[in-house]
Specification:
The chain has 507 residues and is an alpha/beta fold. The chain contains 18 helices and 17 strands. The chain binds pyridoxal-5'-phosphate (PLP). It holds the Pfam family Cys_Met_Meta_PP.
Length: 507
């Protein structure tokens, strides 16, 4: 029986009187729970089961007695039916303490019961902080348990634990995380430096909003730290980077940029905040905050962190309590926290991040090698290939889970790559479009980082809002195609891409 239940010897669950086999053959008319049986666990009688019994744990320190989840308020029968519908069920502290689920509980409440008026006043008079301080929650826009649990989990993957200064805040999208980070510190009259090659939405935000709010910006070639140096001004408040850059996969030397910023501060200027959108890398490959001088790590968690193309989410992590206070204020007042269900899915995604990133990397390397060697492909951009202009830097900054992971399983370089199809500008574009449409395993869709492979054409899709001159200045050529390499069978991906490339001149 124990082997039937899949249990080892030490933890064998032996059913007696009558055995489970007998109970399973009980006629259908007899409710299963009414069958009396007892179990023996390690030689000890464990129960007769009394389903839904209210247990008294008053002898257990710190637990006490209480009611299970969802018990009606005392005196519930006195209330009208409408009251019973609308407000009668309670979730006691006792019940929550005794649940002990292994996964993050999904707490859907928009508001939380206060102990007394003083408790309400106390929670309202606090300065904003990334996490609750053990005194409870007040309103979900100001913080809520599932969001906070997922945020703490992600912070730890960025190297920020419970004892470190700083923290993480989760937003309802990557764009909310980016615009939230900028709004946290930029004011009218400030200046920021940003790369030519950034996610299209980030560029569009600068054009459509930031400049109308009196914030000046300078775009630079992010592959050269000296171009950041040249762009800094006395009123520069943010030095923004995106590395690897979407879609070119070009890298920024964050250490060098931070040094440039330190040198600027040494001249007596206020030190600008150094931020990095590290969406393509994830904290598995690049822990921005472990790079001296980088203050803020941003992710579109819609991508690899969620990992299954089923949520929109954004994350901002910082080691600066001052910045965390500012970003918590943004979340509270601009109102874009990540909702509980999405927070749960994000936390679940994190639990397999390392495994997925390694497999994305292994598949992407094979795809990149095939593309690099294919006569119809003019250029391939994959940081793991020696042909990539930033390969030497990639070997330094893709930490692939850190020393222990590296020693066990070697270095990988993520799942994102880009390539340009051979031919003059028009031919290359025509072939690229045909190629995308011929694919059967890889799907034509924007976004990235899910288990499935996706392909898209940035110049006409994700980066179409960036003026062509700015795109070209950042190395984003018209014919460039971006692939998010998924977790499919490697041969299926290679065969699919080969047939699409080979047939890209056919109508
Ligand atoms: C690098 C990068 N940053 C930010 C974003 C925006 O994220 P979201 O779509 O979750 O708002 C994206 C979206 O594709 C992205 O690729």
């Amino acid at each position: 029986m124990s082997s039937m239940l899949g249990l080892g010897r030490r933890h064998s669950l032996r059913l007696t009187s009558p055995p489970l086999r007998a109970s399973l053959s009980v006629p259908r008319s007899v409710p299963f729970r009414s069958v009396p049986f007892r179990s023996v666990y390690n030689g000890r009688d464990v129960y007769p089961v009394r389903p839904f019994a209210v247990q008294d744990h008053s002898d257990v320190p710190g637990v006490g007695s209480g009611v299970p989840v969802g018990t009606p308020r005392p005196g519930w029968k006195r209330y009208g039916y409408e009251t019973r519908c609308a407000s009668v069920v309670k979730v006691s502290d006792y019940a929550v303490r005794r649940v002990k689920a292994l996964s993050l509980p999904i707490v859907l409440g928009s508001t939380f019961e206060l102990d007394d008026s003083k408790h309400g006043a106390r929670l309202h008079e606090k300065a904003e902080a990334p996490y609750a301080d053990g005194d409870g929650y007040v309103y979900a826009r100001w913080g809520s348990p599932t969001n906070e649990g997922a945020a703490r989990q992600l912070a730890a993957l960025e190297g920020i634990g419970p004892d470190s200064p700083g923290g993480c805040m989760l937003f309802s999208s990557g764009m909310a995380a980016i615009t939230g980070s900028l709004s946290a510190v930029l004011r009218a009259g400030d200046h920021m430096v940003a790369p030519f090659t950034v996610y299209g939405g980030t560029h569009e935000f600068l054009v459509e909003f930031a400049q109308h709010w009196g914030i000046e910006y300078t775009l630079v070639d992010a592959t050269n730290p000296e171009s950041y140096a040249a762009a800094l001004k006395p009123n520069t408040k943010v030095v923004y980077t995106e590395s690897p850059a979407n879609p070119t996969c070009r890298l920024t030397d964050l250490e060098a940029v931070a040094r440039v910023v330190d040198a600027h501060a040494a001249l007596g200027h206020a030190r600008p905040w150094v931020m990095c959108d590290s969406t393509f890398a994830t904290p598995f490959h690049q822990r921005c905050l472990e790079t001296a001088g980088v203050d803020v790590a941003i992710h579109s968690a819609t991508k690899y962190i969620g990992g299954h193309s089923d949520i929109l989410a954004g994350a901002v992590t910082s080691n600066s309590p001052e910045f965390m206070h500012a970003i918590a204020k943004v979340q509270k007042l601009m109102g874009a926290p990540l909702a509980p269900l999405e927070s749960f899915l994000l936390a679940r995604g994190l639990r397999t991040l390392h495994v997925r990133m390694e497999r994305h990397g292994a598949n992407a390397m094979e795809v990149a090698k095939m593309l690099d060697a294919h006569p119809m492909i003019a250029q391939t951009f994959y940081p793991g290939l020696p042909s990539h202009p930033d390969h030497a830097l990639a070997k330094k900054i893709f930490t692939s889970g850190g020393d222990k992971c590296l020693a066990r399983r070697g270095q990988s370089f993520g799942g994102m790559l880009a390539f340009i199809v051979a031919g003059d500008a028009d031919t290359s574009l025509r072939r690229a479009a045909r190629l995308c449409e011929r694919l059967k395993v890889v799907t034509l869709a924007v976004s990235l980082g899910g288990t499935e492979s996706l392909i898209e054409h940035p110049a006409s899709m994700t980066h179409a809002m960036i003026p062509r001159a700015d795109r070209l200045a950042g190395g984003l050529q018209d014919g460039l195609i971006r692939i998010s390499v998924g977790l499919e069978d490697t041969d299926d991906l290679l065969d699919d891409l080969r047939q699409a490339i080979d047939g890209c001149d056919e109508q």
